[in-house]
Every structure is written in C-alpha cells, then in structure tokens.
Specification:
- The structure holds 2 protein chains of 2 kinds.
- Chain A is an alpha/beta fold.
- Chain A has one domain (4-201, 232-261): 3-Layer(aba) Sandwich (Rossmann fold), CATH 3.40.50.
- Chain A has helices at residues 12-21, 34-46, 61-74, 93-111, 137-145, 155-158, 164-187, 204-210, 215-224, 233-244, 262-267, and strands at 4-8, 26-31, 50-55, 77-82, 120-124, 192-198, 255-258.
- The longest helix of chain A has 24 residues, at 164-187.
- Chain B has helices at 12-21, 34-46, 61-74, 93-111, 137-145, 165-188, 205-212, 216-224, 234-245, 263-269; strands spanning 3-8, 26-31, 50-55, 76-82, 120-124, 193-199, 256-259.
- Chain B has a 7-stranded parallel sheet, sandwiched between helices.
- Classes of the chains: A alpha/beta, B alpha/beta.
- The A-B interface holds A 23-24, 241, 245-247, 249-250 and B 21, 23-24, 242, 246-248, 250-251.
C-alpha cells in the first residue's frame, strides 16, 4: 500500500505541492468547495497521480476528524499539508479566526494522532504572521498551548481583534507558535512539523486580491520588495518538498519566510506595515 | 531498528553521496583497507553522523556476504552506495574484471536479497563504460544476466579477448550498467531501486595523483577540450546520488546517469575524437 499525503486546500499552492510530492503516494485532496476540489483532482488524475477526495471544513471538528479517518483508511499517513485558509478580504474577523487559527490548530491536533513515524506536517502560514508586532509571552504561550477547542475563547482574540486583517495576522502568527508546540507532540511519534510563510504567490486567490480594494497595497508591496515580483506556486512547492522530505530531518518547529523580501522592506520602513495603527 | 546506509569504498565519491543521504541513519563504511574506512569514519563522526566500519574485499563472495550480515544486524538496509573498484593504472586485466565486474555483480545479487522496501542503491561506474563500442545483443544479455559466479568464465572475458587493463576497465563499467538494468527488475519486486552513475574526471586525491603523474597531460587535455572545461567535484556526484536514492528519483530505476562534463560527447563528436 502506498503512503498517503493529505493536501488540505486544493488551491494553487496545495496543488503545486501535490504535484511535487504526490507521485508514488496516494494523494488525499480535501477542500471546502466541491467545484474547486473536483477540478483539481481531475487535473492531477490526468497527470497519472492517484487521488482520493473529500470535502472538508477545517473549522468543524467532526469534518476534520472524518478526514483523518479517511486518510488513515487509505494507508500510512506520511505527510499532511494544510494549505486551506481564508484571506482577510474574503470574510469577517470571526470566520478568519475560525478557519485560519482554530482550523489549523484542529488539523495539527487531529493528524498528530495518526501521523506515521518519519512523517511530516506543514502549514501554509503567511508573511502576515511576521507583520504583527511581538505578542507578550503569555499570549504566545496561550496561542501555542491552549487546547484547540478553547482557543477562540481567549480574551485577546474575542475582544481585541478590530478587523479581518488583524485577525489574519494573528491567525498566521498563531500558526508559527502552534507549529512549535506541535513539534514536541509530533516528535514523540518520530514526525516533524513546520510552517512556510509565503508572500504574494500568483494564485487565483492573489489575482482576486489584486483586483480588490486592497490591490494597490499588494502592488506597493511588490514594488518595494527586493524581488519586485510575485512567486509562482512552484517556488513554494520546492520549499515544501524540502521541509517534508529527508533533507529536512533536523528541521522541526520552524517557520520558513518566502516573501521576496516584503517583510525586510517593512522592517526598513520602505513600506507601511498593515494594521500597524490597530495593533 | 533504524535505517542503514552501506558505503562500499570509502573514497571521496562514496563519502560525498553518504554525506548527502545519511543524516539520521546509520552509516556502515566498508573498504578494502580498514584504516581507510576508519579515517573516513572519523570525518563523518565528527560531522555528527552515526558510523561504524568494516573491511571488505569485493572480489570475494564470502567477504561481501559477511558485509551483508553486518549491515542487516545494524538495521534495515535502505541505501547501498557502491563506490569501490580498481582503476586501469592500478591492476592487470584479470584483477580489474574480478573486482570491478564480478565484485559488483555479487554486491547487487546479495544486497538485492536484503534491501528494504523503498530502498535504493547506486553503483559508481565510469565514463569509460561509454567509450567502449557497442557490444552485441547477446553479449549485453550475458553480462546482464549470467549468474555472478559464472561471469568470469564467459568466453568474451578470457585473457585472449581482454588484453589490456583499459579494455578490462571499460568492459567492467559497461557490465556494471547492464547488471544494474537486470537487477532493477529483481530489486523492483522488493519495492527497491538501483541505478548507475558514470562519472568523468572527478577531483579526488586519486585524480590529483593522476594529474601530476605520467598520464597528467592526457587528463588535462580531456578537461580542457570538454564542453564543461573543468573537472567535476565529488559533491556534484553527491547531488546526483541524492536524486537517485531519494524520493525525487522514485521513477528512476535501472538507469545510468553519465556525468562527465561532456567528455564522452567530445570523444564521439568533438575535439576529443581519436584521429582515425
């Protein structure tokens, strides 16, 4: 039986990782949208990948647990990639926190029960997690270690998140912290867990944002960054292949920022940091 | 029990591949000379690798079988790097055939009986295997599939047929790639893969000796007239080894990767072509 790679989120990055990583494995592809899921699965099957699909809502515990069960029934769960998420202009703050913060915690918690020895997990976080000013060590501890189902009750998440952008930055910072905490638990099973924080990746989602009211902000980021361009999803897949594979055997609980230098440009005051006033 | 990578021949190329693929695994280093294995093991151990050593004479079946036994006692054998051999300037034709051709066949046969599912081996052949004119289909099949212990009795390998060390070396290296092709079928049944790398001039201590020795001029000419215009480094072979042995190489088996900076291309179709 081939090992299983679970890809949650059948968007540009998830599919690029599936293509780079999925040969010789069973790909369990999951997405919130039936349309997105079946189109991506067809594309992969045409290229001869072995693909199973399941609809998932990462903000629902029963839905995530059903996905874990399905993955486990297909074979040894060797790799789990969570590329699902809502961007700040897609949803109100509560939904952003439910999907990007609670949902990610849930996926790590649930798959941490079945991940194979030698396996690896990866969350696609965001450079937005690097934009937030430092949190207090109590807040860091709380985001890292609070049981998933109690996370959204933390007072600084319930009462101090003014808009979707801050919710997004907070969720993506929480991904980094959660990865550190889960590295301990996954390590006990001989598995590793890391995050990637991409900048602007040329996906349909990014195109949507470039054409939205925040499009000018995106264009300013690209212009002020050292790379002066967006990344194709394949560049993220190369980094994912490294972090998921044996070359990264010593890398766990880590975050890899791949943003063409946007965060560096913000640090150098060549760009305004979004949400700075609010935080 | 953990995973074991067996390295046969503790020279620069074998070590470069081992360094690329052995983090978190146990390296069993085997060389004809125990002190060569021990010296290489110290370098690896100082770099954080888990290593043990043994000596092996790959011209002897019992010695190879003892190595296989030592390896399987250490854990699951998931990798085999065969980089041992004698070069044309080191030995007479019979010895070259015994070590490079017969020894390699026995290594592939015996490790093919214990290799772990998902495991992979690379055999270091040489660009020399690509210099030899084409053999007949029958000769190819004989070199690929004759049982190892009957190989050296083949009429085509007798002293009246193989008259000089270079010819013995070229034949052995051609046979390595053929043998790997045949073994890929058998290894595949265990869910394992096996491939050949045919390097050109790689800068090792041995190559440096050659460059300053009597054949140095010929080597320098080969390097200068090749498309790459330089020699290769062991680390570049390490990169190809890592591709072939790792997940990214999962569809590659029974294959031979020539990496010689284009010397072979130049030999057939360029400035290195022999005057006819």
């Amino acid at each position: 039986m081939n090992p299983v790679i679970v890809i949650i989120g059948a968007g540009g990055i998830g599919v690029a990782i599936a293509r780079r990583q999925g040969f010789g494995k069973t790909i369990l592809l999951a997405d919130f949208s039936e349309t997105v899921l079946s189109a991506a699965a067809d594309e992969l099957r045409t290229a001869s990948y072995s693909v199973e699909t399941q609809i998932v809502d990462v903000s629902s515990r029963p839905s995530v647990e059903a996905l874990v069960q399905k993955a486990d029934s297909l074979g040894s769960v060797l790799q789990v990639v969570n590329a699902a998420g809502l961007s700040p202009n897609m949803a109100p703050p509560e939904r952003v926190l439910a999907v990007d913060l609670y949902g990610s915690a849930l996926v790590f918690e649930a798959f941490g029960e079945v991940i194979a020895a030698g396996g690896a997990g990866l969350i696609i976080s965001s450079m937005a997690g690097h934009m937030l000013p430092p949190l207090t060590s109590e807040q860091n501890q709380a985001l890292a270690f609070t049981p998933a189902d109690e996370l959204l009750d933390l007072s600084f998440l319930r009462d101090a998140v003014p808009d979707s952008m801050v919710a997004y930055m907070m969720a993506k910072r929480a991904n980094h912290l959660r990865v550190q905490a889960e590295a301990i638990r996954w390590g006990e099973r001989g598995a590793r867990v890391n995050s990637i924080s991409p900048g602007i990746v040329a996906t349909p989602l990014a195109q949507h944002e470039l054409n939205s009211p925040i499009g000018d902000g995106y264009r300013a980021m690209i212009a002020a960054s050292p790379a002066k361009r967006m990344a194709p999803p394949e560049e993220i897949a190369v980094a994912a292949a490294y972090l998921l594979g044996p070359d990264a055997g010593f890398v766990t609980g880590s975050d890899l920022l791949i943003d063409g230098g946007v965060i560096a440009a913000m640090f150098a005051d060549r760009l305004q940091t979004p949400g700075q006033q609010a935080a | 029990m953990g995973q074991v990578v067996v390295v046969i021949g503790a020279g620069s190329i074998g070590i470069a591949i081992a360094r690329r693929v052995s983090a978190g695994k146990h390296v069993l280093l085997a060389d004809l000379r125990q002190e060569t294995a021990d010296a290489a093991a110290k370098v690896l151990a100082d770099a954080g690798f888990a290593v043990s050593t043994t000596s092996v004479d790959i011209s002897k079946r019992e010695s190879i079988e003892a190595l296989v036994a030592t390896a399987t006692e250490l854990g699951d054998v998931t990798g085999v790097i065969h980089a041992a051999g004698v070069s044309p300037s080191q030995a007479p034709p019979a010895t070259i055939l015994h070590v490079d051709l017969y020894g390699t066949a026995v290594i592939l046969e015996t490790f093919g009986n214990v290799i772990a599912r998902g495991g992979s081996a690379v055999v270091i052949a040489s660009q020399s295997g690509h210099r030899l004119p084409a053999l007949t289909a029958e000769q190819d099949a004989l070199l690929a599939t004759t049982p190892a212990d009957e190989l050296l009795a083949l009429p085509m390998l007798q002293p009246d047929q193989v008259t000089d060390p270079l010819n013995a070396y070229q034949l052995s290296k051609r046979a390595n790639a053929l043998r790997v092709k045949a073994e890929a079928v058998r290894w595949g049944k265990r869910g394992a893969r096996v491939n050949t790398i045919s390097p050109g001039i790689i800068m090792t201590p041995l190559a440096n000796d050659e460059l300053s020795g009597p054949r140095g001029e010929g080597y320098r000419r080969m390097i200068e007239l090749s498309p790459a215009g330089r020699a290769g480094t062991p680390d570049e072979v390490g990169t190809v080894g890592a591709l072939l042995m790792g997940q990214d190489g999962a569809f590659i088996t029974g294959s031979d990767v020539l990496m010689d900076g284009g010397v072979t291309a130049s030999f057939f179709y360029g400035a290195l072509a022999p005057e006819s």
